[in-house]
Specification:
The protein is of the alpha/beta class. The chain has a domain of 197 residues: Rossmann fold, CATH 3.40.50.720. 40% of the residues lie in helices and 16% in strands. It contains nine helices and twelve strands. The protein is globular and about 55 Å long.
Length: 284
Amino acid sequence: MKYLIIGRNGQLATAFARRLELRSAECLAPGESQCDITNASAIGSIIASYRPGVIINCAAYNLVDRAEQERDKAFAVNAGGPRILAEAARDQNAFLVHFGSDYVFDGSKEDDLYREDDATNPLNEYGRSKLAGERAVREILAERSLVFRLSWVFGEGRQNFIAKLLEWSRSQDYLKIACDEFSVPTWTETVVDVTLKSLEREVTGLYHLTNRGYCSRYEWAKVILKKKNIGKFVRPVSMDVFSLPAKRPKFSAMNDQLIADRLNIDIPSWEEAVDRFLSKEHGA
């Protein structure tokens, strides 16, 4: 099986490339200059020449606040890009894995975690662009695609909450972290594990993929700082304090039971995932 990874420089693509290399799988992860997801000609050419069996789309415009001003750019990458990939995959009979977001929900659900069949209602342009992208993939490649909605992804790299929190702890006297924004921290290694198992078992469709449980940003921050032995004072505040351009759902935690049952696996809790990541990657 030949794999093509789109979005080489991101933390998720890095995790997939490393794992596939360890498996001695045939894998290509071209840079953006060679494989711009918004360029239909470039995408079509590389897929036609490499002829992958599986395409893993890790490319995303994930600057949530900037997307409010850069709507066209966000939609070009998060909606137009997946459509281009899906059309090229269809033409070459390739299988496409695509990753969505918990921000397709508005946070109004009160009686449970979000499930795959719950109504979507994004509150910001980023969420709307991600919803358009997952819909394009499912519309074009209904039987030859796998869409996983993710949340609060962390792994190697600087563009995640753990890296930012550790940077803030070094540069600020104390920290203010939102205590009223809830979702599920999700480790890239968990995403890779479940995705590859799903491919082995030829799973298709839309699923939620997170670690188990849920927490607030504040709770997550406290766990990270304790694990790192950082005695920084953390003040819990409402996320409204930050006056961010993009409105965010206050509760977007998703239920991953559907994919766990489908694969007959136990998915680790977010606390276990964070502990393993910090122990492995940061020598805590």
